Amino acid sequence: MTTAPVSTPTAADPAPALVAFFKSLSDVRRLQVAGRLAAGNQTVAQLAEALGEPPAAIRRHLEALRAAGLVAGPLGPAQAYRLCRDHIHSLAAQVLARPTVAVPETDDEFAAKVLRDFLTPDGAFRELPAQEKKFLVLLPYALLVFEPGGRYTEKEVNARLQRLHPDTATLRRALIDHQWMQREANGATYWRSE
Question: What residues make up the domain containing 19?
Answer without folding.
Answer: 15-95
